[in-house]
Specification:
Blueprint: E1 4-8, H1 11-19, H2 30-33, E2 39-47, E3 50-59, E4 65-66, E5 77-78, H3 86-104, E6 110-114, H4 123-130, E7 134-148, H5 162-165, H6 169-179, E8 186-190, H7 194-206, H8 213-228, E9 232-238, E10 244-253, E11 256-263, H9 273-287, E12 292-294, H10 301-308, E13 313-324
Parallel strand pairs: 11-12
Antiparallel strand pairs: 1-2, 2-3, 3-4, 3-5, 6-13, 7-12, 7-13, 8-9, 9-10, 10-11
């Protein structure tokens, strides 16, 4: 392909790409990538010296591409001209996807990544398989939930608000109880992550999740880095005795907020604090001009039901794996 190149990106080009792409997210921002304790390589695709797309890959010690449990989206990004037509966008995305994959397979024998939910067209991968450019193509579908909070604070009466109307019956009852002062609590926003990390480690242990000591250390580093750069915040819910009973951590990129993780210590049980902590966070983020919440994964029954009960729109994204032919 003439006048096209795939080269290692510097910070300037990468920042331009992720800030001008519909596939940009916190998970491929430099502050996030630097926190994962993994080698990574960012690639920029240019056509006639104009940035058209890119991709980031994480690498192990043997320079093989790997995935990380904390990184949700890591796939191909596109960068279009402002007035580009739908037809030209489709053509450009196919061209970008094929060029990036073909060139990466000259450097790596195996590719795998999770594309952003704004990546819709999977045909380039199927066509590469058809043309015998790749083999062992595997596409797994995953889901996340998106919540529009753009008007969260605009309604004077919460019962007339769009976000309240989208809640399920149980969550509506919890919010009503709070407004009617039947539930007494205190909400604090903080950058002290000690309880949050302690409670999350307790949850990991109690649920026998496959987390290593290094995984925990990476989570600590990521949280500390995001908090120190004012890219994240923690909400703590306290009961009437000033005991912390729930915590959530959200980060943000541009006008999208991302639920990273949260929880409580196993000894604490109630039916409302988790809902209130997220609800409080929606208000906080709305004040920061955040328009959309990505609840980041609804792929297990319990988590899926809890997150969609806020009225989240279900969006699919794809884990894609293939080998060089």
């Amino acid at each position: 392909m003439e006048n096209c190149s795939l080269t290692i990106s510097d910070d300037k080009d990468w920042n331009y790409l992720i800030n001008n792409s519909d596939q940009g997210s916190i998970f491929i921002d430099k502050i996030f990538l630097d926190s994962l304790n993994k080698n990574y390589q960012r690639y920029i695709f240019k056509k006639k010296k104009i940035i058209k797309g890119g991709i980031v890959v994480l690498l192990n010690d043997k320079k093989k591409i790997i995935l990380h449990k904390l990184q949700i989206y890591s796939g191909i990004l596109f960068c279009h001209e402002k007035n580009a037509s739908i037809t030209s966008k489709i053509s450009a995305e196919i061209e970008t996807s094929e060029f990036i994959c073909k060139n990466l397979l000259e450097r790596y024998s195996h590719l795998k990544f999770c594309n952003h939910y704004n990546f819709d067209d999977l045909r380039p991968f199927q066509w590469l398989k058809f043309d015998r450019k790749i083999k062992n193509l595997k596409i797994d579908i995953k889901y996340t939930g998106l919540l529009n909070i753009e008007d969260f604070l605009s309604e004077k009466s919460y019962e007339n608000s769009h976000n309240y109307s989208m809640l399920n019956k149980n969550k509506k009852e919890i919010i009503r109880s709070v407004k009617n002062k039947k539930i007494i609590f205190k909400s604090i926003f903080s950058r002290d992550n000690s309880y949050l990390l302690e409670s999350y480690q307790s949850m990991i242990k109690n649920n026998n999740l496959l987390w290593t000591k290094n995984d925990i250390n990476v989570l600590k580093k990521l949280t500390n880095n995001l908090l120190s750069k004012n890219r994240a915040i923690i909400n703590y819910i306290l009961d009437s005795n000033n005991n912390i009973i729930y915590s959530t951590c959200y980060a943000w990129f541009k006008d999208v907020g991302y639920y990273l993780y949260g929880g409580r210590k196993s000894s604490i049980k109630d039916g409302w604090s988790s809902t209130i902590s997220h609800w409080e966070m929606f208000g906080y983020l709305s004040k920061k001009k955040i328009k959309t919440i990505d609840l980041e994964g609804i792929n297990s029954p319990e988590r899926g039901h809890f997150k969609t009960s806020f009225g989240a729109q279900i969006k699919s994204y794809y884990l894609i794996k293939f080998d060089k032919y």
